[in-house]
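Hi P.,

Sorry for the delay on this. The queue was packed all week, but I finally got your sequence through. Input first:
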Amino acid sequence: GRFINANPAWCETLGYSAREIDNIDIYTVLDEKFATDYEYILDKIKTGERTVHAEIGFKSRLGERLLFDCYVNTRKVGDDPVATHWLMRNITSLKQVEKSLCDINDQYLSMFENTHVPLALGDHRAEIMQINQAACELIGYSYEEAIGMHFREITHPDDMLESKTSYEKMMTG
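Then the structure:
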């Protein structure tokens, strides 16, 4: 777990100088939550794998948690692993954006499903992709029946021209 070398980008990202690298080991910077993942990498290396891919969390010098997409290559002498080379990409911001998008999606779905306002979402062909319970009750179809239906199948004949005109305006921007 001792560092032999670390490039300037790694040092800068984690907040260490090149001199400090000589005095720390992997456990100094490894996020405790990822200890099992690190042991997994070591086990794979010990069983002969030359390259292991994993997401590993590290702590910066200031205690900031960072997530990296890592490819770990093994250098061997004979059959014995003697060193590893880590190619790492900081994906902390990417994971934060993914989490935000998931949270937003969960909020949207909750609002969509739990409102008493009938809502349906259609695709570019005007087929229902998503529909809430209030809309199902309004049109008299179950969720399973409604999904994939064309809007003209649930539009009153007197409203067909207005619906078609609105749809065409929407599709042309």
